[in-house]
Amino acid sequence: QIFINNEWHDSVSGKKFEVFNPANEEKICEVEEGDKADVDKAVKAARKAFELGSPWRTMDASERGRLLNKLADLVERDRLILATMEAIDGGKLFSTAYLMDLGACIKTLRYCAGWADKIHGRTVPMDGNFFTFTRHEPIGVCGQIIPWNFPLVMFIWKIAPALCCGNTVVVKPAEQTPLTALYMGSLIKEVRFPPGVVNIVPGFGPTTGAAISHHMDVDKVAFTGSTEVGKLIKEAAGKSNLKRVTLELGGKSPNIIFADADLDSAVEFAHIGLFYHQGQCCIAGSRIFVEEPVYDEFVQRSIERAKKYTLGNPLLPGVQQGPQIDKEQFQKILELIESGKKEGAKLECGGGPWGDKGYFIQPTVFSNVTDDMRIAKEEIFGPVQQIMKFKTTDEVIKRANNTAYGLAAAVFTKDIDKALTFAAALQAGTVWVNCYSAMSAQCPFGGFKMSGNGREM
Amino acid sequence: PIPLPLLSLQIFINNEWHESTSGKKFPTYNPSTLEKICDIEEGDKPDVDNAVEAAKAAFQRGAPWRQMDALSRGRLLHKLADLLERDRVILAVSTVIGKPFLQAYFIDLEGCIKTLRYYAGWADKIQGRTIPVDENFVCFTRHEPMGVCGAITPWNFPLLMLVWKMAPALCCGNTLVIKPAEQTPLTSLYIGSLIKEVGFPPGVVNIVPGYGPTAGAAISTHHSIDKIAFTGSTKVGKLIKEAASKSNLKRVTLELGGKNPCIVCADADLDLAVECAHQGVFFNQGQCCTAASRVFVEEQIYPEFVKRSVEYAKKRLVGDPFDARTEQGPQIDQKQFDKILELIESGKKEGAKLECGGLAIEDRGLFIKPTVFSEVTDNMRIAKEEIFGPVQPIMKFKSIEEVIRRANSTEYGLTAAVFTKNLDRALTLASALQSGTVWINCYNALYAQAPFGGFKMSGNGRELGEYALAEYTEVKTVTIKLSQKSP
Lengths: 457, 487
What we know:
A: alpha/beta, Aldehyde Dehydrogenase, Chain A, domain 2, B: Aldehyde Dehydrogenase, Chain A, domain 1, 6-stranded mixed β-sheet, EC 1.2.1.36 (chain B), retinal dehydrogenase (NAD+) activity (chain B), lipid metabolism (chain B), Aldehyde_DH_NAD(P) (chain B)
């Protein structure tokens, strides 16, 4: 149901929506469908919880930190339940959900818990006979719209810093994957966050999500999802009440491999960097630039690596790849694969669907990809790896930066000069050297250009 | 007629002066005399495109501006401040927008010079962090310049608002495309010649005079502009944020309107409070985003406060900006003039008590008499809408809880002021007021070191202080794998 003021509510409209298991296309359950009226209720509750003099506003900062730490404890306690739920709802490999997703959630909660009583302002030596200082106050009611690729991790990435700083939140989890967010509602109540501090309204983007981004009493909206929707959200923010906006959007991240790199390491990182979670990552290294001398060898080893995959039920051990999240994504990825074939890329392996139930796609590798092909320009969000060739440093810097995106990038080389030149030259919010996907609660994460506005973590 | 030095009245791109692509020009007027001063080349989308091309080229990897040591960037900003000091009189004169000359000279120009020097000092101190990340990685952040920044500046403090944007932008290594307000382009264009004289590389600063719906819109919708900073009305601020979203998600800083509460408690130093509240609302002909346009006075001292405020208002000298005795000049143009008079009429109609002023000065173009209203209630238009003119609404309050609620009951949230000698009251109000700046026992204390910006619909982001640097840098996290964990 809908979680407002630490209580569970039916939707105002009485409507419900269905949640599916992408591994077998079967319905898991029904969830109350929130819409504008429910968002209004949630915002009212969040606004009241944020009032001057309320329990949340008068709570010591250190106590806020304690609550976040207690929440981390409960997530640890219920790690198995949450991981299983995430695997079934999101098509995520159970082992990955348990070790990686849940691990990141717990660590992020504890990291932000530690910051709570360290939100410092400054004293400022202003001209004239004045005593001046700044206060870093909570923004207020924060709307947070969560995606379906890392439902619980993205939920935590948003609520942890928001609560740490003293805000109240209205969260809309993705309609494909609302279950773990709703479970968190019960943990939030158990930890005893004051009522109204966290409110969760499951529903769809054009209804619930739009209600949040247009709301005149929401002070800030944070969104992770596609660049297309990110633009709509920032527009809505401008049209309504100039609410502050943080966006984590798409990417077409370049992964640059030099001839002097440790080739085994590069192949492995490039592989995981693309295929992790069925390619459904904003940071997917979906344009791999390999220096000419090692191109053929790199392609060979990448194909071998991709062919080793077992697809199947994400709950079972021994399965390395699960299904895509839903039919829409499934069809979009297949369409882009077809465009790759049509536009002349060389299909090295995979290239089509797998199995007769569920949204599974074979791990696919394209070589001889050129920059003008759709698979080199558009975000695929699926298990499709593009490998292109390059000759010189200047050339690859230009090609890597030649995109409206700018989320992440990587370079593999042992040469210190090359490594640091790329760290400076690549237009990306995160640059990895000799690794990929290295993320941790301590490092800021976010996009240059149209991959986002602002930073998380 | 004021003798103007040889001013280039053209579009400034790549350190050169250009005519407009369309061949059109637009006139600029002196609001004191309503006479045309001169014609200026009118920039539109093609000129903005040219300026952006130049700014982009100047920002390329390997370009002189990118290769320059940070310290040298700081030196250029210092030299620019030196030239402003050298040409201070000319610039103050060129600020011929009805602002009293002495105010332009002592306040506007002072603010410009100090702000430039403040940011000159920051240039080589834009620091990232090293971060203790889990496992065997070295992790650090770089605070890189955003790229090409669009700056759209208002007509109330034309040069100062330009410097508030230019200084941090250049300090952090960005390049600029500036559109000054169409009512007041002259000082911005003059800065172009100083930029060239100082030796900023071509393309680092570009200036395209023109109108909002044409040149301004071209900037906010441009796909190659990475960030836009705007000072102006909330209405236009919303359009700009919308345009930024629809185009390329460019980052946005907005400094918008205000309906700023000025709270005077019974224990305040009454003379100080009256004077500050007076200057707070009447400064610059009331044309300040920080205008103290809702004065809340504690019941006990209300009649005395009103009486003294009226005396002050009646004494305020309105006249020729070049007369050293003048305290108040004309409003900027007919549109503003009409709007202010309309709001004054609404005050009379809705039942506020007109204590003095309340009309234009006959036969004097755009001059309005300093106006004071008392017995104002919160639902009146003059208590809710931003007037941007010499009109002071004074209301009464009983308790602190009540005045906090009333002060915060607005979509704006730019500044607020509190007059009291009581420590507890001062700090309670400082915490409770939803404003980007809270002044205690003072007004308009604005200096380069202290961040400035709005809560709620008074803006997004902060200018001035160290905080402005965050508006002009993009954070990049670099994570490097090591073969072993390093302590």
